[in-house]
Amino acid sequence: MPSVVLKYVMAASGAAMLLYLVLHMLGNLKIFFGAGALDAYSAWLRTLLEPAVPYSGVLWVIRVVLTVALVAHVWSAIVLARRARAARPVRYTHRPPVQGSYAARTMRWGGVIIALFVVYHLLDLTTGTLNPIGVHGEVYDNVAADFAPSHWYATIFYVLAVVTVGIHVRHGLWSGLQTFGRSNARTQRALKTFALVFAALLVAGFLAVPFAVTFGLV
Amino acid sequence: MRLHLKVWRQHDADDRGAMRSYDVDDASPDMSFLELLDVLNEKLTTEGEEPVAFDHDCREGICGACSMVIDGQPHGPEKATTTCQLHLRHFRDGDTITVEPFRAGSFPVVKDLVVDRSAFDRIIAAGGYVSAPTGSAPDAHAVPVPKDQADRAFTAAACIGCGACVAACPNGSASLFLGAKITHLGELPQGQPERDSRVLAMVAEHDAAGFGGCTNTGECADACPKEIPLDVISQLNRDYLAARRSRRRSA
Ligand code: SF4
Ligand code: FES
């Protein structure tokens, strides 16, 4: 697979997942309209486009698309990482990183951490297995139990994971725009700023929910 | 000035190589880095030791031969400066300076600091040219080129093929070099007939030579002594996609 094609695979699968993240984040904010609004939103996601598609149909389509995107993303990352290793068999004895941002340097390990978090997240709030309550459909109660002050370790883990996602998105979004050929000398700085602001808003949106629960705002 | 050097010594391609320490006591701030190595080599020769092998040619920053990584940075710490144009006044008396060859599997070490960069020649041979009928030079204004495009082509054409981008890249990718050539020829009318076949062939040769894939870290543009901007890689991606599309259309 040509290296340039790998970049497009990486960028397109990343874009699909990022779009999902934005919708996910906006959906989460329903919690600020009350427990009922959040639970109703979750129920609506399942009845969406009924009866044209069966119950939960849309959700399953999204899950399949996300799985394909994830596999493509991870696969291209692994191929690129292996090529990078092969391309520099002897390492420098002394080479401090100069330009690459912290975000760019932590894409690979950051990605692994995010993948582990997603596993936990699904077991927590999708299947309910690891949730203190874990009742299907009682979204508000599950979330409230998760981020209750007494369950602080889950909250901390969520916060760290979301920040890791933000760092990943910061480099990923900019990198994707560069890959899709939308960068030139004039727009480069603007694109980087855009990616930073975008990532910051995403993190803020995702963190609003656990913080609001922990501090009893919702 | 007194300088302590830690230099990579490797007898030949098969030798494992190691860092060795040397002291130079009589360096002058006005010397270039290559002259410092010349002084070191004179000392080593008189002491009956083998001099440090390094690549150089023009010593005026235009040929791209003087490849080495100084204090962890290809062509040293000064921005937009080749090793031969790097002067010792940018270092301090008593500094310890590490000197290593460019590290890339596609740039195997020949001896000490000298690496074989013929992989770049193969990439150029794959498509980095225009097939124009030669003969006497045409009139300069025979083919008009819009100013913006001429400027961009010129910026990209400043690439001297030194390989610092590869040396700096955490992925060992030559995408900045590739992008520079694609942009340089792609912005000019003379480059159009082979625009699609060029990018496909050059990317294929780049990958075949064992260079890694780009992940947009930007280390290359920072290390480039000719300040080739990162957006040439954007251009490379765009041209590559367009070439694949048009090949599919015509097939
Ligand atoms: S792009 Fe810059 S660093 Fe890379 S080969 Fe050309 S001049 Fe050297
Ligand atoms: S010797 Fe020619 S660029 Fe340095």
Q: How many domain units of chain B? A: 2
CATH class call of chain A:
Mainly Alpha
Anisotropy-based shape of chain B: elongated
| Uncertain parts of chain B | none
Distance between the termini of chain A: 50 Å
- How does the helix and strand content of chain B classify structurally? alpha+beta
CA(first)-CA(last) distance of chain B: 65 Å
Chain pair with largest interface: A-B, 41 and 48 residues
**Taking all residues together, what is the mean pLDDT of chain B?**
95
Helix content of chain B: 25-40%
If you compute it from the alpha carbons, what radius of gyration of chain B comes out, rounded to the nearest whole angstrom? 20 Å
Could you tell me the CATH topology label of chain A.
Answer: 3 helical TM bundles of succinate and fumarate reductases
The average pLDDT of chain A is 93
How is the topology of this model organized?
The complex is a heterodimer of chains A (218) and B (251).
Chain A: H1 3-28, H2 35-47, H3 57-87, H4 102-105, H5 107-126, H6 139-146, H7 152-179, H8 188-214
Chain B: E1 3-9, E2 18-24, H1 33-46, E3 69-70, E4 73-74, E5 96-100, E6 109-111, E7 114-115, H2 118-127, H3 147-157, H4 164-168, H5 175-186, H6 195-208, H7 219-223, H8 231-250
Helix pairs in contact in B: 2-6, 3-5, 5-6, 5-8, 6-8
